[in-house]
Amino acid sequence: MSRRAAAAAAAALVAVAALAGVGCERRSAAAGPAAGEPAARVVATADHGAEVLLDEHVAPGRSVMTALMGVTPVETAYGGGFVLSMLGRGSSSSPSADWFFYVNGFESPVGAAAADLSDGDIAWWDHRAWEGMPRVRAVVGSWPEPFLHGVGGAAPEVAADAPLAGALERAGARVVPGDRPFRARVGTDASLALRDPAWRAVGGDPGGMALPGGIAGGRVVLMPAAGGAPVPVGAARAVVVLVPAGARPADGALLAVAGLDITAARAAAATIAADPSVLALRYAVAFDGAGTPVRAAGRIGP
């Protein structure tokens, strides 16, 4: 979940939570949806997806918070819209850590009690340090979302380069010619900047755009394991990052497979097309020139 105040406010978290009211909800006894029924997925991890704590299917048509409370006990604050603690991990200002959530790869513009789940959606909660980078606007770890279900249950039309176009079609995406708000592109840093306004807007400063990785100063950069702004990854020649196309998730997104050279970009894209799990529960991923993952954002390994 996106932090409601900047880092300076975090030191007062306990006091604020006390004023706002703290609650504890217990897991519902209701079973999840049966096979073949509409379903959404709720995942909880720690440390940028490195440790999976929870992975459950839930009935759609409810809020992210309600769905979460149906599968695990949750201690809440801010009138029930903020996860203070669950699964043995909670908010902390020293060291800094909180629960953040993403729906189909996007940082939610509203709190978990106001964000609704549709059929096929993935709500990913991650407990991580936030000092130095309190926001991350989008993550690749729900791939092939948001290109299957988009936002609010509306399957988008998708523009995609090979070989990602074929991979998305096999997953059930509506791949069409031309350009669209939702797109997956493969190319060098320079060529993507010419082709795509979302990549051009990053301007070689992914940290400044609240993204966990990208290319800066002619080098692949990722958020380090300790958290904070992206730093160079020595062996990397390509990076995969999800870039919001606008201020709202409904504005679309670019999955950018950007390389220091076109060979590296195409090799990384080929790896993703052959094995989508290389992006699973990761914020962004760096690849070497042969298309082998070498580092995931916020982790010490891939």
A few lines on this structure:
Helices cover 17% and strands 30% of the residues. It has helices at residues 7-10, 13-20, 64-69, 164-171, 189-195, 197-202, 262-274, and strands at 23-25, 40-46, 51-58, 74-77, 82-86, 89-90, 92-93, 96-103, 106-107, 122-128, 157-160, 174-175, 182-188, 213-216, 219-222, 231-232, 238-244, 253-259, 285-287, 293-296.
- Reading the helices and strands in chain order gives HHEEEHEEEEEEEEHEEHHEEEEEHEE
* Average pLDDT number: 90
Reported for the largest beta sheet, the result is: 7 strands, mixed
Helix content: 10-25%
Helix/strand structural class: alpha+beta
Cα-to-Cα separation, first versus last residue:
24 Å
Tell me the overall shape. globular
Strand order of the largest sheet: 12-11-13-18-17-19-20
How many distinct folded domains? 2
Uncertain segments: 1-23, 25-30
Number of strands: 20
What is the element layout, followed by pairings?
Blueprint: H1 7-10, H2 13-20, E1 23-25, E2 40-46, E3 51-58, H3 64-69, E4 74-77, E5 82-86, E6 89-90, E7 92-93, E8 96-103, E9 106-107, E10 122-128, E11 157-160, H4 164-171, E12 174-175, E13 182-188, H5 189-195, H6 197-202, E14 213-216, E15 219-222, E16 231-232, E17 238-244, E18 253-259, H7 262-274, E19 285-287, E20 293-296
